[in-house]
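Protein entry
_____________
===
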Amino acid sequence: MKLKNNKVLTALLCALMTLGISGCGGGDDETQTAQLDNQDSEIQEAAVQSGDQYLDLAVIFGYEGESFILKLEENPTAAQIAKDVGTVEWNLPIIHFDDFEEHEVMQYYDIPSSYDIPSNPETVTTEQLGDVYYSHPNRIIIFYQDAKVSGEYTKVGHIENTENLNQAVVSNPVLEGWNTKIVTISLAE
């Protein structure tokens, strides 16, 4: 009898949870979508304000290079990147590393198109060594020298320990068989 009551109790709890998840008050799809968007916005805001440890990312050029700490900005773009990187470490390829205008001051790394990253680009004309930006469509741009480059970017953060940054970017090895370089971005320990 006790086992039967446990099964009934479990079934009741599952039904109640299902009703709670589905909204049990009805409502149209637009209302439920707006509620989910609001919850997502609150989650991103909480992620931004959750503390220094969450807001630090580790950046490594290649697989075995020196680790650099990226301090993130407090904006939805940086929060989404931190959330995505918190799920899975990124190994981002660079498609063009020495054959585009301004390659001697910046590098851009492609984020897979499966990531949906919000942005609020502004015209940027002066960048500092260590500045990190997001550029649509799905690119991380790292400035490894001070520069005067005009572009529409959303600032993501700044690499603090820039003493060896220039050398790390320049000496980032081309992966054998891939003819590209990568940057690894993960949560800082």
User: Anything to note?
Assistant: The chain has five helices and nine strands. The two ends are 51 Å apart (CA to CA). Residues 1-27, 31-53 have pLDDT under 50 and may be disordered. The helical segments are 2-22, 29-48, 52-55, 76-87, 165-170.
